[in-house]
Specification:
Radius of gyration: 31 Å
Subunit structure: Binds to the N-terminal domain of the chaperone ClpA.
Distance between the termini: 71 Å
Shape: rod-shaped
CATH superfamily of one domain: Ribosomal protein L7/L12, C-terminal domain/Adaptor protein ClpS
Mean pLDDT: 86
Number of strands: 3
InterPro entries: ClpS (IPR022935), ClpS_core (IPR003769), Ribosomal_bL12_C/ClpS-like (IPR014719)
Family: Belongs to the ClpS family.
CATH class of one domain: Alpha Beta
Structural class: alpha+beta
Protein name: ATP-dependent Clp protease adapter protein ClpS
Low-confidence stretches: none
CATH architecture of one domain: 2-Layer Sandwich
Largest sheet: 3 strands, antiparallel
Strand order of the largest sheet: 2-1-3
Order of helices and strands: EHHEHE
Keywords: Hydrolase, Protease
CATH topology of one domain: Ribosomal Protein L30, Chain: A
Length: 128
């Protein structure tokens, strides 16, 4: 039968400080122990990125409208408006998202376009 070691007093956690048992004059300390209040961390909004689609001479307008509706949840009217901006101005913003979401959407659109045989290009650009 194994021998049991004598019980040791519980050690204090590394985040707690021992309470002072006596005051400066040596009298027992009866003051309650107060926790240190920490300020809430300041949170800032994440950097946002635009998913920008660029014009080319080969991708059909219908394909671009379909991508804008399926991947960016635009209505038919807003998808057509963005597609026309891409066509006339050379590029258009499909949506604005945090970086990881914008990267994923741009990669997904580029992959879908390649699979369909189109050179449509989407990239992300920082906003603000």
């Amino acid at each position: 039968m194994p021998t049991q070691s004598p019980k040791q007093p519980p050690s204090q956690s590394p985040n707690s400080l021992p309470a002072r048992l006596t005051d400066i004059e040596g009298e027992p300390n009866t003051d309650p122990v107060e926790d240190v209040l920490l300020a809430d961390p300041e949170l800032k909004k994440p950097q946002m990125y635009a998913v920008v689609m660029y014009n080319d001479d080969y991708t059909p307008m219908e394909f671009v409208v379909d991508v804008l509706q399926n991947h960016f949840k635009h209505t038919l009217d807003s998808a057509i408006s963005i597609m026309l901006a891409i066509h006339h101005q050379g590029k258009g913003i499909a949506g604005i998202y945090p970086k990881d979401i914008a990267e994923t959407k741009a990669q997904t659109v580029n992959r879908e376009a390649r699979q369909a045989g189109y050179p449509l290009l989407s990239q992300i650009e920082p906003q603000g």
